[in-house]
Design brief:
alpha/beta; globular
């Protein structure tokens, strides 16, 4: 029986991701600054959206924003196509994640936002994508090498998208002078028994 070295596979996958994640520095430009400013000045809610793996990342980014005092929720674009677009108000801001930027489910949401002049921050890796064309702020993710054996399964691409979301949250925290005391105030773990 051939012995499989799972640890070496894991280390190789980790090494690929660590190397590729350094490309995040390409994102920190004027568009990143505009995204932080738009989110900080949003009078409504920051609505994070995405489909599939990008949807899972959007849900986590929304949860992080909520944890740091930014009013936010996740909206599934498929559900939005069946009546949930009414949750979006003119004062809101859409933060839409799609690695390809051409996911068909986001098209109606983008048209709706454009029609009602709702600002969109688009995050995608394709410059000419539907998402980035429709966005007020375009954050172009660098194309990265996936860390799985086929090079096709979203691994590194989801990691870099999540890293971007965390970097947006950290930049916002610094802009708002978010303190340890404020973290304790919004954390349920510090409520008296």
């Amino acid at each position: 029986m051939v012995k499989v070295n799972y640890i070496s596979f894991a280390k190789k996958a980790a090494a690929i991701q660590i190397s590729e994640l350094k490309k995040i520095n390409k994102i920190f430009d004027k568009s990143f600054i505009r995204a932080v400013e738009l989110m900080a000045n949003c009078k409504g809610k920051v609505i994070a959206a995405g489909i599939g793996k990008s949807g899972l990342i959007a849900r986590k980014v929304s949860a992080t924003l909520s944890s740091v005092g930014i009013s936010s929720f996740f909206l599934n674009p498929s559900e939005a196509n069946h009546g949930d677009l009414g949750q979006i108000d003119k004062r809101d801001l859409l933060l839409v994640f799609s690695y390809s930027g051409n996911t068909t489910e986001i098209a109606n949401m983008l048209r709706y936002a454009n029609r009602f002049n709702i600002k969109i921050i688009g995050v995608a890796s394709k410059k000419d994508s539907l998402l980035l064309k429709a966005s007020d702020v375009k954050i172009l993710l660098p194309e990265v090498k996936e860390s799985d054996p086929t090079g096709m399964v979203p691994t590194t691409s989801t990691s870099i998208t999540l890293l971007l979301g965390d970097c947006l949250a950290v930049a916002l925290m610094n802009k708002m002078r978010f303190s340890k005391e404020r973290v304790k105030a919004v954390s349920y773990t510090h409520l008296p028994a």
